[in-house]
Structure formats: C-alpha cells, structure tokens
Design brief:
Helix content is 31%, strand content 27%. The chain has helices at residues 26-39, 70-77, 80-90, and strands at 13-20, 47-54, 60-67, 96-100. The protein is globular and about 35 Å long. The two termini are 21 Å apart.
Length: 108
C-alpha cells in the first residue's frame, strides 16, 4: 500500500473540506465520505490521497485530499457525473472546502 507524504518539498495540491456536524451524525458523515472516496474520488485522474479526521467531541470532520495539480482537481470538480453523486450526499453537512499551501512540516 502506498503512503502519501505531506510536506513543502512535495509539489501537490492540498484541499481540505471542513464539516460542522452534530455528534450523533459524525459517524454517518464519516461513512458517507469513505464510501464516496472509495467508489468515486480515488479513481479520478490526478488523485493522490485522502485522509479523514474526526474530532473527539463529535462536532467536526476534516477530509483532506492531495491532487497532482490544480488542473486535476478542477477537472474532477467539473465532472458532472461524479459531482452529481457527491454533492447530494455531502451538501446536507455543509462542506467548507479550501485549498491550502503547505508551508511547514516536521517528522520524527
């Protein structure tokens, strides 16, 4: 299994989706995202990785993606078939996507 690397020396696009959720719906959202990534997103050209984080208080879900380029991500976002399956599933959870620049990373 390949592992993704996050850091300044890696030329990738990082997109983070933040969701606010009720604690009793956090697991549902997590499972929804996992299914969408497994069935749709990971098969897209230029997709590198997805990482899903759940806050321990149950109120936040962070899903960050790595793409080979902005163009690959934009092509995915313009894919009406893929978006037609993804958007209805995540829109009720109020996704807040943002593109980020990695300016620092450290590892042991």
């Amino acid at each position: 299994m390949a592992h993704s690397t996050i850091g300044r020396d890696r030329d990738v696009l990082t997109v983070i989706f933040e969701f606010d959720t009720e604690p009793d719906r956090q697991r549902e959202l997590s499972e929804t995202i996992q299914g969408l990534v497994t069935d749709i997103v990971r098969h897209q050209p230029g997709f590198l990785a997805s990482h899903l984080h759940l806050s321990t208080d149950g109120e936040k879900v962070l899903n960050y993606f790595q793409w080979e380029s902005r163009e690959a991500f934009d092509t995915f976002r313009a894919d009406d078939e893929a978006q037609g399956r993804i958007r209805p599933a995540i829109t009720p959870f109020g996704p807040k996507p943002r593109v980020y620049e990695i300016v620092f990373s450290a590892a042991a």
